[in-house]
């Protein structure tokens, strides 16, 4: 029995749907670096932070189902809300994201390895905490506000599933696309 919301599709269900629907659109909302590392064949990439600019173009003229893909499902849920706000109706989220797809034995294309955005966030947050603590001990106690701010941001990200540090990191050239593939051409 299915235990996921109706707007969610399980990896096995997606495999079956892809086998019967050649017009299925797989929209991957991860960073270009993550997309380049591993992706579902025939998927196309519009990073979550760019999706709002392209939501109408993605929606217009599309009568085919769209399945949203990210690393674990959280960003795809945010993308679902953006597309719903633009009037897109036939949208589903891949339950568990690319991680679940790979675990279920789904076919993927791999390229050069890049660091996942979640890992970048952990490294940046840890570095800021260490820097703030060291500066507070060696320079001035007010530098303790830096680890306090980072910790507060992590708690906020955990509660709301929205991370300001991740948003900032997506602006780095390493994580930026050279182009956005709104029309689904791979």
Describe this protein's structure.
Strands 1-6-5-2-4 form a 5-stranded parallel β-sheet. A two-stranded antiparallel ribbon has the order 3-7. The model is unreliable at 182-186 (pLDDT under 50). It has helices at residues 11-20, 32-37, 48-59, 74-85, 97-103, 117-138, 145-160, 164-169, and strands at 8-9, 25-28, 38-39, 43-45, 66-69, 91-94, 109-110. The two termini are 35 Å apart. The chain is built from 8 helices and 7 strands. 49% of the residues lie in helices and 11% in strands. With 186 residues, it is of the alpha/beta class. Helix 3 (48-59) packs across helix 4 (74-85) and helix 6 (117-138) packs antiparallel against helix 7 (145-160).
Structural key phrases:
49% helix, alpha/beta, 186 residues, disordered C terminus, single chain, five-stranded parallel β-sheet, two-stranded antiparallel sheet
């Amino acid at each position: 029995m299915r235990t996921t919301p109706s707007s969610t599709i399980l990896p096995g269900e997606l495999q079956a749907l892809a086998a019967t629907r050649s017009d299925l659109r797989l929209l991957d909302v991860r960073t270009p670096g993550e997309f380049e590392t591993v992706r579902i064949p025939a998927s196309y990439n519009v990073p979550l932070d760019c999706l709002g600019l392209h939501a109408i173009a993605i929606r217009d003229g599309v009568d085919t189902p769209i399945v949203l893909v990210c690393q674990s499902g959280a960003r795809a849920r945010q993308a679902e809300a953006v597309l719903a706000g633009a009037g897109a109706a036939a949208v589903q989220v891949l339950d568990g994201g690319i991680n679940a797809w790979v675990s279920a034995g789904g076919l993927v294309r791999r390229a050069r390895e890049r660091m996942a955005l979640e890992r970048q966030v952990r490294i940046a947050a840890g570095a800021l905490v260490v820097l703030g603590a060291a500066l507070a001990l060696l320079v001035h106690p007010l530098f303790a506000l830096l680890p306090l701010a980072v910790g507060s941001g992590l708690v906020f990200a955990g509660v709301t599933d929205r991370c300001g540090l991740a948003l900032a990191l997506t602006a780095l050239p390493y994580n930026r696309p050279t182009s956005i593939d709104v029309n689904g051409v791979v």
